[in-house]
Amino acid sequence: MDNSGDISFPADDFPANSSSLQHHFAKLKKQMSRQKADYESKITSLEQRNKELQLEIKDLLSKLRQQRKWYSLVEIKMRNAERAREDAEKRNEMLQREMEEFFDTFGELTNEVKKTERIIQSF
């Protein structure tokens, strides 16, 4: 059989290649360790930022609920104020009519009193 396709290492190159591979393997292991530390640091940082953002969202939602309550109260107060204004206008109109009726009646009474006084004076 022909083994010309097989790779062969000279006997004196093997220890040098083995040492070189071990050195290269150690460098790769160190690089992977640094990358792992970097990734873990980034993950920790992202998790912390996520917690901060979740707290901020919770706070903003609470403020939003408070603003909605405040807005509802303002709407209710505005409707109540509008109803009170309308009621006051109706009372003022009714009072105006009653005053006009009173003065009309009082004027008629005054005229009657004046007529009666003239009649009495004429005797």
TrEMBL record:
Gene Ontology BP annotations: negative regulation of Rac protein signal transduction; negative regulation of ruffle assembly; wound healing, spreading of epidermal cells
Q: What is this protein identified as?
A: Rho GTPase-activating protein 24-like
Q: Which residues form a coiled coil?
A: 29-112
Q: Please provide, alphabetically and separated by semicolons, the GO molecular function terms listed in this UniProt record.
A: GTPase activator activity
Q: Which UniProt key words apply to this protein?
A: Coiled coil, GTPase activation
User: Source taxonomy lineage?
Assistant: Eukaryota, Metazoa, Chordata, Craniata, Vertebrata
Report the GO terms under cellular component.
focal adhesion
Q: Which PANTHER family match?
A: RHO GTPASE-ACTIVATING PROTEIN 24-LIKE ISOFORM X1, SPERMATHECAL PHYSIOLOGY VARIANT
